[in-house]
Batch of 2 targets.
Target 1
Amino acid sequence: MFDVQEMEVNFGPQHPSTHGVLRVLLKIDGERIVEAKPIIGYLHRGTEKLFEAMAYPQCIPHTDRMDYVASATNNLGFVEAVEKLIGATGIIPRRVKVMRVMLSELQRISSHLLWLATHAIDIGAMTPFFYCFREREMVLDLFEDYCGARLTLNCMRIGGMPDDLPAGWLEKLAEFVGIFEAAVDEYEDLLTNNRIWKRRTVGVGVLSPEEAIEWGITGPPLRGSGVDWDLRKVLPYECYPELEFEVPLGRNGDTYDRYLVRMEEMRQSRRILEQCLELIKTTTPGEIKAKISRVIRPPEGEVYHSIESPKGELGYYIVSDGKSQSAYRCHVRPPSFVNLQALPALARGHLVSDLVALIGTIDIVLGEVDR
Amino acid sequence: MIPEPLMRYLVWPTVKFLVAFVIVQVVVAAMTYIERRVLAFMQARLGPNRVGPWGLFQAIADPVKLMLKEDIVPANAEKVGYFLGPMLPLIPAFVVFCLIPFGPPPTFVVTHVNVGLLLILALTSTGVYGIILGGWASNNKFSLMGGLRSAAQMVSYEVPFGLSIVGVLMLTGSFDLVRIVRYQESHAWNVLPQLVGCFIFLVAMTAENNRAPFDLPEAESELVAGFHTEYSGMKFAFYFLAEYAAMLVNSCLMVSLFFGGWSLGGVIMGRQVGLTTVNLQHLGLLGGVIGATIFLVKVMLFMVAYIWFRGTFPRFRFDQFMDLGLKWMIPLSLVNIVVTGILILAGAGTRYPAMGEVVLTLFGIVVIAAVILFLMKGPKPKARPAGVAHARRVSEV
Amino acid sequence: MHVEYPKYKWTDRFLLLDMLEGLKTTFRELFKPKVTIRYPEERLEPADRFRGMFRFSFDRCIACKLCAVACPIDIIYIDVHDETREIDGKNKKIKVLDRYDIDVKRCMFCSLCEEACPTKPKSIWLTTKTYELATHDRSDLYFNMQQLEYWDDRPRYEELGAAFEEPSGHELPGGAD
């Protein structure tokens, strides 16, 4: 008698909580999701193809625009990949290494702050948004002092850094490191214990370790499932081997665990920054460039290099034909894109409200998904 | 000359209602400003500060903007429903103000109905139809979902909303809000013996008003804007007005039922201490104004509490929200009724007829004291240097 | 290291302490200093290295075109001709700039051109601490050599209203891309 029909809803691309231009085609039965199909490509700019037409140093500002909330790590991945290709990894000055680690850890903090801000506001807590942005502003101020830009940093060069640290920068960083722990405590006061927050996140989008590995998921979502895989530890780059830090792991692989993992990662990043403040004193100021030729023309060959970006494993695969100054082919393995694959499986059977929590917990940046 | 009965039953109530109506309008307009400002202050920002001194005229600028805005009707909307939607919640929300005693009787009560509370409950629950209708008539899937959520919300929270009051009714023995307020003068504020009832009422009234953390029908991160996605201009303003008027009604109820209404003081050992009804009535019209002011201040505190909740809590999920209402709030309110009833009856007929109430009051005091104690004991606020977020100098131009 | 899960005592649950803790936090925040900058009246001072609007110096430029080569999106247009001039009694062949245009609306402010510039001090630099570049017309963002050097007299944000009445005096080539 009653004709039951599933409703199809276009969730996005213009929706407040799809973090950009993600479009999810939903089939819902009441509020329950029967099928969620992410549709991407609304922000495709052909970055990989652009790399083929550009000299290597010119590609760096373009990497900024992939994961635009974590451009320092994007720069780092590309720069290191090219250094590996031209065989310059061994001659990078120590100061450069420490500076790179500092910038990428700051970037991790700022990216996680943005994630927390948007994740919380998706779940309905609007206040952490502003607190997070208040602290993120300090990180962006630090970036601005160092390289002159706040978001699209373009702050690394092949074989070195564009500039030495400006005067007073380390003191400013120390000030930030000093207050950040208390700031994270404040966010946790609002969320971690809150029973509504727990109800909204515990048991939502459970990802078992096996599933996570099969999906190719990396970064905090993988560690939230309890898989101890952090490229900073397992394939260390720059000066990470010298640094002491923990890799936080979850147990249940649900949204709440991923939340806790990222919160702890912020604290660990702060710890790394604290150690870097000491390490940088042992380096020679002004030693910010390795001696490599100005024109970069790598030998024939290919290289894959990946780093731990705030969102997961960010890999660059570069093929050089040995003749030109630009890559023959450059492929990027963006963590957001790979992690997003799990969304249909995670969302099935959950409610529409959970979908926004899930999009938040995967932490996607559409610039990186679509490139 | 107008005959006395006409004066008494038509003219005066009309005048009083119009005055109350204007005051409500002003309060709602002020609330839009206060809400944005307080919320902003909780979130380390300033809020509206452009229009007029401290942005005060924002409360005027907003309605003016909404009035001047183009009124867009979606092409395939159900026209009648679309127009009726915003009107329906507005009518009960304003009619209810006739029944609320703003100050000591007789001046500051528009109509003194001896079953006023029942009538208020009946009227406020009709407001949701406009939301359902508007959500359905917009011809938008998100609006529809918002409307349906609102319906579910009404179903699961109207019951605890009504049940939470029963304890108060048993204590005071009346449906008359004036009598309930006067009862609290000679006893303690009802919040103490009816702490559980008060808590349920607080939760249920937040839920009834679709306010955070129960703002599911208009959850902007899930349903864009929920039932009013397709509304703009004055129609949207009507929804807005109705929501705030309903908030005001519920705050008024809260104050009258649990927080002593217009009075500030009590009857101790048969003597009128402080600003009680009798003392206020002695002062005549001035007393009435004082009483109404006290009432309004108390109401505003609860209006701010709405904002405070909105600034603090995440949003419930649809099913959890229903769970809370049906599986927790209804049983809890039933238990509250049973316990209150048993305690009142246990005292009746013995040498201490007020025993039950005393026990309930003590329980309330103990719980409140425990909460305050635990909160004080909690982790010390950590040192956070002030204003470091913008360490960079700001240049005044 | 596994993350720590918050421990829940039954008293905390019963007394709703988890919720009240949040309310306490927001209440405390009410009285803390606010971070809003009321923009047109107050402005943030950009950092010394802030990459903002370009400035070009004709006198310093040696017309080597390195900046144009370094530019990832090719928005620097340079035309040069050779001239023989007498300098210090000798005839020298030097390059003379005919055209040095930047299509600022397409620029992504990466400052690679500034880095590539071989002159000391740089002939093209972005550290002018200027960020209010919005115009009413797309073509106003195409800067030629003179404009790149003397854009200071462009009306600023708050003066735009007055300056809008009369033609600004800049005759700009439109839509050169």
Target 2
Amino acid sequence: MDDAIAVRDLVVDRGGRRVLDGISCRVPRGAVTGLLGPSGSGKTTFMRAVVGVQLVSGGTVTVLGQPAGTPALRHRVGYLTQAPSVYADLTVRENARYFAALYGRGRGEADRAVRDVGLAEAAGQLVATLSGGQRSRASLACALVGEPELVILDEPTVGQDPVLRADLWARFHAMAAAGTTLLVSSHVMDEAARCDQLLLIRQGRLIADDSPAAIRAAAGVDDLDEAFLRLIRAGEATSTSTDATAARESA
Amino acid sequence: MNPRILAATTGRILRQLRHDRRTIALLVVVPAVLLTLVYFMYADQPTPPGQPTAFDRIALVMLGIFPFVIMFLVTSIAMLRERTSGTLERLLTTPLGKLDLLFGYGIAFGLAAAAQAAVAAAVAYWIFDLDTAGSIGLVIGIAVLDAVLGVALGLLCSAFARTEFQAVQFLPVVVIPQLLLCGLFVARDQMAGWLQALSDAFPLSYAIEALQEVGAHAEPTGRMWRDVAVVFGAVVLALVLAAATLRRRSG
């Protein structure tokens, strides 16, 4: 029960292609875990499996002690999709109030969620008239408004200005300090350093699962970008040498 | 279903409609304009003695057909927008039940249809002297039920449409055969046996027959109540099927 998320041998196929290939990992409670990887590596699919909207081919995903997708979990898990999914023909405030109502929260909580993402001044504006960055913050407000125990955020800081990005990360850490678990995906390595724990996936496989400090130490470099590159190269070298060994043995 | 979530969802859909002034204007004005057209089309047609005038016969049926066709289209598009904008997937990760969403659409568009039917009926009765034996209240009530039938079929069909082009094509597939065989063009008992059987299978036939019963009898008849019950049953069946085709998990 110490882990917010426990994944064992997760396999997902989409459109005849293996998108996640046997992932096993744990996400600790009350921390910010970063899910890092290039575009197309399977980050979104992994998050969808955790939220319980992804059909999986194999393995188990346990979330807050229950199988992912269990109805009771819908009250306890908040999900921010990568593309902002809010109603363009409603104002920011109306969107936040609607999602607040779904979680049994009132107008006060909705207005606070809008303020917390820095949209207080745009609260009365239709979402259709917002900039891309504002729109994704409106979507974030709707994911946080129910004060879920576990928050799954798919690229929440894309397109945000640097000051706002720093504010959002400060807010994520404040939430974690208050006991919330956050799983945040990003393809920007400078965000990796802000996480307590990192999961690096590439081509549907888990390459690293550790704290930023431990990953730096393992790779022997200070720069996380470089560290990940070395881990990937090291992984490829091992798999080629095992292949070579296997080929020799069979010959 | 949860009354609080159902009410919030209904309110949200009505709020979306309220922001779209042009759609509201079209909903209210178009039926009145079309009735005007029908009035002048038949203005100089002779009426056999003892028969209702052509305008009385056709306008009454049109009061039931407008809300059915328009709400079918509006719902198909609205639901497709929920799908393509990602809000549907997001809603399905919240405590919202599928029936909360489907009944929310039914109630919200039913209310919009009530306003539309009231205006259209007022124009028909007070400007063009529509004459029915039964009450205007029953006519509006049946028109609203027709609208809800359109919503329910629209929700069901939208599950089978992946694009806007497909959604619009369901109009000729689902709506037009029902219009042709509902008894407006050829009386149902004068059609070939197999056409009559088809007509018997279409819910719109019962909706139109109920309106014709109101047109011919001062008091609600048993046949009218039976027809209303059949349409209501079709609405519930379509909504249950729509809920069954709405999947929380996808590939």
